[in-house]
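Readers of this paper often ask what the protein records in our data store actually look like. The remainder of this section carries one protein's record, kept here as part of the documentation.

:::
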Amino acid sequence: MDFFIVEDDKVLSLILSKMVQKIGYEVSGTSEYGSESIKKIKENKPSVILMDIALKDQVDGITVASEVTKLYSPAIIYITGNTDESTRKRAEEFGYHEFLAKPVDFNQLKSSIMSI
């Protein structure tokens, strides 16, 4: 499995990358911006996307998921601080593997990845 990380916090993106590598997988790319994420994900077609919802541009993570899932069906693991019910319901419209609340720890992430 290869991973793509969509996260607006560069430090958290690096931490998530290290976690994924520690579990034994590769990270094929990262992005802080929704519009850039759509382009890169469409080009690389990673099998798993770690997705924040609030990003650095007007395109949020749920919109990224809606665009990407039109082409193929990656496993999407949301890792977000936006855990309110309306956000979760909006995310459910496009499907996801897991919806994790920040801060996420190594064991949570590993468990989620291993269940794919």
